[in-house]
Design a protein that fits this description.
Strand content: under 5%
Shape: flat
Structural class: mainly alpha
Low-confidence stretches: 1-36, 292-307
Helix content: over 70%
């Protein structure tokens, strides 16, 4: 046995060499093929990766659906985002390999976004997509590459820019609509509860609510008209005119204040002197297009689009105030009286406040629930205080 053991070194060495020669190519193949050396993913990994894969596919589809309703640059941007999501999809497919299996359903959030994109394609979808990109799990996912996490951060900013364009297009009218609805809900609920707390009959409460609806709607409409019209007039007053084109040929070349015009507009002295020379006809070259001798092109877009139009703001404010103010008096219109009518009114107004607050939250890219609860607390808080004041006033009168 011992002698056999002593005579084994050659055999052992031969076996070792044989083993090395046998295993060497396999090890080299493993080194050259990272997939071969990657540990087998766990069931939890596979489940998580398949969910990521489904969500990436759904998000790419959302951007493609949105692109169908856009043209030009916005369409190209959305298609580029869809292509980027396709790169992420390829990453998870590569990791999953044979485990990719049957396509998994996307998350409820991704499916909801897809539904909105296919049927509406509105700024609300972009606002939701912005929020979704900002909550990407890739920063905490060890299987995602740093580039993928960085992509999602960039995507959030891209979608934010697109959503901002949409917000600007509806900002003025939307602002008047949301404020009008909220004011109608809160003010008329407060009025109704305050009147009811004094002990007057339900008929008086109903008439007070109708009066509050009409007075508030006309007041809101008139106020928005004056506000927006005044704001646009102020903005128009700050816009430079082209009077320099008309007056320049008549000015004294040696003594004039044309330079002061351009300095007052914020130009540097060098740029202002160059523009003066062009306006006075001393330069005929188009040396710098930004200081061109030629008159500016006529405007093709409304500079004050975000402000909205006076009539649009007034009408939307009137209609939405009225639609909000009618909610608290609905129980009284259907013949309800007493505490029961007030409870129903408060519940209806609470639901409406949650809706308007959530809508603002969606458009601003923040939590709809947080904004909705904030609106609810403010509205019902104001109504509760008014109810207590009404009780106190009724006790004094009695």
């Amino acid at each position: 046995m011992s002698q056999h053991a002593k005579s084994d070194p050659h055999a052992s060495g031969t076996a070792s060499a044989s083993s090395a020669s046998t295993n060497g190519p396999a090890d080299g193949a493993a080194a050259s093929n990272p997939a071969a050396s990657r540990p087998e993913p766990s069931a939890a990994d596979i489940k998580r990766w398949r969910q990521y894969l489904a969500d990436e596919r759904a998000e790419a589809a959302v951007y493609r659906d949105l692109a169908q309703n856009r043209t030009g640059e916005e369409r190209a941007i959305l298609l580029a985002l869809a292509e980027a999501e396709g790169r992420h999809e390829a990453h998870w497919l590569k990791l999953l390999g044979e485990h990719a299996g049957k396509a998994r359903r996307a998350s409820l959030r991704s499916r909801f976004l897809g539904f909105l994109a296919r049927h509406f394609g509105s700024v609300f979808v972009l606002a939701l997509a912005q929020r979704a990109e900002g909550r990407s799990p890739y920063t905490r996912e060890p299987s995602a590459t740093p580039a993928m996490a960085a992509d999602e951060q960039i995507h959030e900013e891209v979608v934010r820019g697109l959503a901002t364009r949409g917000r600007n297009r509806l900002a003025g009218t939307f602002r008047a609509a949301v404020f009008g609805a909220n004011d109608g809900l809160v003010s008329n609920l407060s009025l109704v509860m305050g009147m009811a707390a004094t002990g007057v009959g339900s008929g008086v409460v109903l008439l007070s609510g109708i009066s509050g609806l009409l007075a508030g709607a006309f007041s809101m409409g008139a106020g928005e008209f004056v506000s927006v019209r005044s704001q646009r007039e102020l903005l128009d007053a700050t816009r430079p005119t082209q009077v320099t084109l008309v007056a320049a040929p008549q000015l004294d070349i040696e003594h004039n204040e044309l330079l002061l015009v351009y300095l007052a507009r914020g130009m540097s002295r060098e740029a202002a002197e160059h523009r003066v020379a062009e306006r006075m006809g001393l330069f005929t070259c188009d040396c710098d297009p930004s200081l061109s001798l030629h008159p500016e092109l006529p405007e093709t877009e409304d500079e004050h689009e975000a402000v909205g139009t006076a009539w649009g703001a007034a009408l939307s404010s009137f209609c939405f105030f009225a639609s909000g103010a009618i909610v608290p008096i609905i129980p009284f219109l259907f013949g309800m009286t007493g505490i029961g009518a007030l409870v129903v009114a408060a519940v209806l107004v609470g639901i409406a406040l949650l809706g308007t607050g959530g809508t603002v939250g969606l458009l601003s890219g923040t939590s709809p629930l947080t904004r909705g609860l904030r609106q609810l607390a403010i509205g019902l808080g104001a109504a509760g205080v008014t109810y207590l004041l009404g009780m106190a006033f009724g006790a004094v009168i009695a």
